[in-house]
Amino acid sequence: MTGSFDADAADDGGIASPARAAIGDAVRARLERNPMVSRIDTPHLEIFGRQDFLSPEECAELRRLIDANAQPSTLFSGSANADYRTSHSGNLSPRDPLVERITERICALTGLPAISGETLQGQRYTPGQEYKVHCDYFPATADYWQRMRGTGGQRTWTTMIYLSAVEAGGETHFPQCEFMVPPVEGMILIWNNMDRDGAPNRFSLHAALPVERGTKYVVTKWFRERPWG
Ligand SMILES: O=C(O)CCC(=O)C(=O)O
Ligand SMILES: [Fe+2]
């Protein structure tokens, strides 16, 4: 650190932040109190799972909504990317009663406020489709960071629900942590993209491995450190 105070650096998405650390503490404590939730045993990432978060009927209804809304996926940077994220995705209307109910349940499970959650996004992967390694947090060096800073700041927790089992492939792979999660219908996966100090955690790097057989459906909801929008 140099002597001069830099307001930009102080509010930088790329460094430790007591506010983001406090969000991590609160969610971790809540999930650890819940007997239905298990923590995946890995030293450098806070990641939890809960089976049967959605019923088979709810998963089927969400798959139907995704099929009705699916467009080729884009990347956050806005680039049309031919091979990086090859799935189809679509935002699900927050006014849909099922989407509303699921959002409430995600917020009740994690304790995260609904106003900080981005729109629930559905994704569908058919054989060969994937989402290559990426981090869900925003790089503070990206040109779009200043815009994100003004619309809720950094992405803290990711919540993702598998809506189908996949016959082969389609695991969510965390290469820095050397483990992967196979899709299980109805299971929610919850991880902290920040470390204990509220700085981006590079161990949260992950990929959706290519589906080999079957169709994979997921919904993802990313939470910001402040109200989104
Ligand atoms: O589909 C997956 O397994 C991962 C999806 C993902 O990484 C994302 O939507 O940010
Ligand atoms: Fe992701």
From TrEMBL:
InterPro entries: Oxoglu/Fe-dep_dioxygenase_dom (IPR005123), P4HA-like (IPR045054), Pro_4_hyd_alph (IPR006620), Pro_4_hyd_alph_FE2OG_OXY (IPR044862)
Signal peptide annotation: none
Pfam families hit by this protein: 2OG-FeII_Oxy_3
Alphabetically ordered keywords of this record: Dioxygenase, Iron, Metal-binding, Oxidoreductase, Vitamin C
Residue span, Fe2OG dioxygenase domain: 116-225
Record's keyword annotation contains RNA-binding: no
Cofactor(s) listed: L-ascorbate
Superkingdom assignment: Bacteria
Coiled-coil regions listed in the entry: none
Protein name: 2OG-Fe(II) oxygenase
